[in-house]
Design goal:
This protein is of the alpha/beta class. It contains 9 helices and 11 strands. The strands form 2 sheets. A 6-stranded mixed beta sheet has the order 3-8-7-4-5-6.
Length: 249
């Protein structure tokens, strides 16, 4: 089946540069973007039930921009004034720079890894005396707390926000040749919004093993899976698929 229309279950990329835009132009495709999930912060009342004391921590481990936003949101709602002495350990340089929305950037108290928790652990181990807070989502991957525990770091997990399905009712009678998913949450949102969804000829693509598993677990056909040796990116995998479908016509 020739692919002409694609719906990517993520927000539209910012700016004018994206592999998706290049793909659309090169193969004359209509590519739309729509986030199937969104983040909601938990209330201060719900946070209190976790019995986490913000003032007992001297360092914060930040694994995403959402974690940054919701740490400072909950601190404000609880009237907790974050001390200037607080140290921040960010999963990546991008998250560290995002932190500047809330604090003055000082090298002595802001540290960052390369993108993976394994990289950040090497930095955290140099600050073993700190008591770390890990602000996170209700769907935090086990890899992160497991890695911290394996390295005997003193940390507290605090769920500050959750991932929920977005309302997709306006897409009920809109059809695409291909649906692209990047998370199990996106797949679950599709099922929740459209319990009677019939895949038929719709091509379903997934990035990552957990997303692929969610598609199969929900009795859908997995047509395209990235990363692969010949396509480390989702756009690369889609391009290969589009090219092969054109040849088979």
């Amino acid at each position: 089946m020739a692919v002409k229309t694609i719906l990517v279950s993520q927000p539209k990329p910012e700016g004018t540069k994206s592999p998706y835009f290049d793909l659309a132009e090169k193969y004359k495709l209509k590519i739309d973007f729509r986030s199937f999930i969104h983040v909601e912060g938990i209330s201060a009342q719900e946070f209190r039930t976790q019995k986490v004391e913000l003032d007992k921590h001297t360092g914060v481990i930040l694994t995403s921009k959402n974690a940054v936003d919701h740490y400072f949101r909950i601190a404000e709602e609880l009237r907790f004034e974050v001390p200037d002495s607080m140290k921040y350990f960010c999963i990546s340089e991008a998250v560290a720079y995002y932190l500047q929305k809330y604090v003055t950037y000082r090298k002595r108290k802001i540290f960052f890894g390369k993108q993976r928790i394994d990289d950040l652990v090497d930095i955290l181990k140099k600050h073993k005396k700190e008591k770390f807070l890990l602000p996170c989502t209700d769907r935090l991957r086990d890899k992160i707390p497991d890695t911290l525990a394996e390295n005997n770091l003193n940390f507290t997990k605090a769920v500050l926000y959750r991932t929920v399905a977005s309302d997709l009712s306006d897409l009920e009678n809109v059809y695409y040749d291909m649906l692209v998913f990047y998370s199990p949450g996106g797949v679950e949102s599709l099922v929740k919004n459209f319990p009677d969804f019939k895949q038929n000829d719709t091509i379903i693509a997934a990035f990552g093993p957990t997303t692929a598993k969610a598609i199969v677990d929900n009795n859908m056909r997995l047509d395209l899976h990235a990363p692969q040796p010949n396509a480390p990116s989702m756009t690369g995998a889609i391009e290969n698929f589009v090219k092969s479908s054109k040849k088979s016509k």
